[in-house]
Amino acid sequence: MGTVVGGASALAIAEVRLTPVLVADPPLLNTQGVHQPYTPRLVIEVVTADGTTGVGETYGDTCYLDLARPLARALPGRSVTDLNGLFTLAESVCGEPDGVSESVDSGGLRGVRTADKLRLSVVSGFEVACLDALGKALGLPVHALLGGRVRYRVEYGGYLFYRWAEHPVSGAPLDDWGAALDPEGIVAQARRLAADFGFTSFKLKGGVFPPDQEIAAVRALARAFPGHPLRLDPNGAWSVETARYVAGQLAGVLEYLEDPTSGTAGMARLARCAGMPLATNMCVTTFAEIPEAFTKGAVQVVLCDHHYWGGLRRTRELAAVCRAFGVGLAMHSNTHLGISLAAMTHVAATLPNLDHACDSHYPWLTEDVITARHTFQGGRLTVGDAPGLGVELDRTALEALHWRWLDDDGTLRDRDDTAAMRRADPAWATPAVPRW
Ligand SMILES: O=C([O-])C(=O)C[C@H](O)[C@@H](O)C(=O)[O-]
Ligand SMILES: [Mg+2]
């Protein structure tokens, strides 16, 4: 596979396969509710004329599938090298997704939900699949196609969640992490993540309990891990006043406070008095949001996410803009499989200004669709030199997770943390923002 046998025509796309899957997800809590027992993802395979298969992954909810299907139909005949063309093709064939608005998405965690952003999330999976195929055809790793790595190992942080021991529905998948609902539980979780994966920095998903309880959890972490970088992320659940109070309480303890309050205006007001950097994966998630946020000084760190931004090359563009404005760079994560983790690691390896450990949900996942799970060493993943992403699809696992999606009556095919929470608390409604 090292040479491009047959030249450019060999790189023409002959077939695209879309496989929606449902992946087991633990009962992780956030300000919207709780994760469903299974979360939807979409696995994208791009097969070239010479039989090389590239894989990508993105969100699997219905609105993403509706955009992915016409793009998959339009791709055959085009080259896997035509990455810029993917964007214009998607614009012309995908159509308008349902349920878009300028306001935050229904899950409330990913910022605005514009048609452009949903389409870019779909394009990202295709871009990664094309890069994987191209890398395999050329015998080059994806990081080389992005200009080459600037580091051999990419650091990830331990992603701490308040959580229940099990989902409140019978037959849901189980794990052995137990509940974590207070400072002791969070510290115990961090100790296990440190022992099992070697993480040395930690992010607590907040916005779950009243702020004083979360402040206590962060202080307990600081006592247990003195000097280690710590972050708190309530997904915009606090008013500016509350956020200012929390920032005051945690001054000198946090490396940054992530989306303490909703919206650029509030973040800008808070940034002036927070006494620590503010980070976001909610108020800057598209290029259109950058000018206002950066000129107002609303954020000091942006969490990139190649799914939001339209792929690995657009992530590098975001990094360049951040560098120009002196804004720091970290990396965001939703529940994802090993394909996306490989893509995250390749692009992270090429970003000179990645200043913080990356987020990843991966340690929480017990299932995958690749043959060899990624293994963290000292909290880091090594950036390999195998062609493409360096992962291989486990077809048996993929089929099993796809069957789960086929068997679902539709309840789990769209991630809805609020609905999942209602199973435990029938009175639960999407919390008004600010919640505190
Ligand atoms: O703000 C963030 O970092 C996230 O939204 C990451 C994830 O979506 C997380 O909050 C989750 O899945 O509950
Ligand atoms: Mg966040």
UniProtKB/TrEMBL annotation:
Keywords from the named record: Lyase, Magnesium, Metal-binding
Q: Which cofactor does it need?
A: Mg(2+)
Put simply, this protein is called glucarate dehydratase
Q: Matching Pfam families, A to Z? A: MR_MLE_C, MR_MLE_N
Spell out the reaction equation it catalyses.
Answer: D-glucarate = 5-dehydro-4-deoxy-D-glucarate + H2O
What class does this enzyme belong to in the EC scheme?
lyase
Give the source's domain of life in one word: Bacteria
Enumerate the spans annotated as Mandelate racemase/muconate lactonizing enzyme C-terminal domain.
183-277
Alphabetized SUPFAM superfamilies for the sequence = Enolase C-terminal domain-like, Enolase N-terminal domain-like
Q: Which InterPro entries match?
A: DgoD-like, Enolase-like_C_sf, Enolase-like_N, Enolase_C-like, GlucD-like, Mandelate_racemase_C, Mandelate_racemase_N_dom
What pathway does the UniProt record associate with this protein? Carbohydrate acid metabolism; D-glucarate degradation; 2,5-dioxopentanoate from D-glucarate: step 1/2
The cross-references to SMART domains, in alphabetical order and at most eight, read: MR_MLE
The EC number of this protein is 4.2.1.40
Could you say which protein family the record assigns here? Belongs to the mandelate racemase/muconate lactonizing enzyme family. GlucD subfamily.
